Amino acid sequence: MEEYAGLVSRLTGLIMDVVLLTVLCLTVRILPVVAWEQVLPGDSPGWLEVLCGVAAALLPWAYFTTAWSFTGQTVGGLLIGTVVRRNDGRELGFLQAAARALVGLLLAPVWFVGLIGVLADQRRRAWHDRVFRTVVRFVQRHHK
Amino acid sequence: MTYGLGERDTPAAERPGAARIALGLAVLAGERVGAGTAYRGGVATALGLLRQGSTAARHAAGLAGDRVARAGGRLLPTGLLRRTRDRLADAEQVGRATAAASRADAVAFLWATVDDGVAWAQVRIIPKIIDGLVPHLVAEVVPRIIDGAMPDIRERVLPVVIEDLTDDPQIREFVVEQSRGAIGEATNRLRATTATADDRVEAAFRRLIGRERNAGPA
User: Fold this and answer.
1) A65: which of A25, A78, A98, B3 fits an S-S bond (Cβ 3.0–4.6 Å)?
2) Mutate: best of B194, B200, B202, B211, partner A, most A CBs <10 A
């Protein structure tokens, strides 16, 4: 049981990812427009703002999908020492990771409420873990 | 090691006598004042005669000396003159050896005396001097030295030191390793804290709902 990450570890990692994504999204959304206006005369074109907005909106999904499908670890998970795996221990596929990230982002409140399931499950699985047949493990267990 | 002036660790039987050391000191003094051959010739002969303790030899030497001085050696029998000359030559050899041995003993005695004196001073004198000096140095001398040297240190020494340190690859590597170590330590501490909090939160939750954890489907 102790090899699975609990509620506090998962929330801590998630908060780190949220902070990181906030900074990244603001950068992607604002920086190109500001740079355009600084370098070129006049206001930035509308298409650039739309493009930046779309990129900023897609960035969280791309971030989680890439992280979970390639290494199983986001930056927050890397710092906390957790990794997302399938129930059998294998790495997530791209589609599985993409679906997990999409649902988590679109239904974020449900995602958070579903974390209560971690407290009552033998393998510390949240509701979305049961849906997508995943678990969150510790890479290395750290206890005081 | 002894800490008394003139004391030696050598056994009493091996210690040279005071007369011999005095003789060696006299030889050394003679060398110092420029008489490089002070224990040769007549002096050496006299030493040899003393060493042999031969009254006859001394008498013969004196008699021979007187007669030779008066008559240029022609009035003496040839045999007596030859024996006297041989004895004088032997006495000179013995005297030289005695002077050389006394000199060596005196040198050894002086070195031992100096060593003992230095050791004694190191244990008894120098600590007292330092104990007495340190408060004065710390209170008055060192601050003045620092105040006097600090402007030059700031203007000339520190920039060079900083430049050397920043250019030193070993220092750079050391700083990087230290940073990695600090980050790694902080990360490990965070992981341990959150993992412990996981267990505590779950335990509190179980106490709250009053049941054990469900074994959910795989």
Assistant:
1) A98
2) B194
A2 domain residue, yes or no: no
| 8 A C-beta contact, residue B201 and residue A116 | no
**CA distance to partner chain A, nearest, from residue B202 (Å):** 5
- Domain membership flag for residue A105: yes
Domains of chain B, residue spans: 12-120, 168-212
In a domain, A108, yes or no: yes
Q: CA-CA distance, A54 to A17, in Å (whole number)? A: 19
Query: CA-CA distance, B160 to B154, in Å (whole number)?
Result: 10
The question of ipTM being above 0.95 is answered as no
Domain range for A14 is: 7-138
What is the residue whose two structure tokens read 């930035």? A44
pLDDT < 50 positions in chain B = 1-8, 38, 215-218
Q: In degrees to the nearest 10, what's the CA dihedral of A107, A113, A114, A119?
A: 160
A120 occurs within a structural domain: yes
Of the candidates B112, B111, B63, the residue with the CA atom closest to the CA atom of residue B83: B63
Return the pLDDT at A13. 94
Name the domain count of chain A: 1
Which of B202, B205, B207 to mutate: most A Cβ within 10 Å? B202
CA gap A122, A99 in Å, rounded:
24
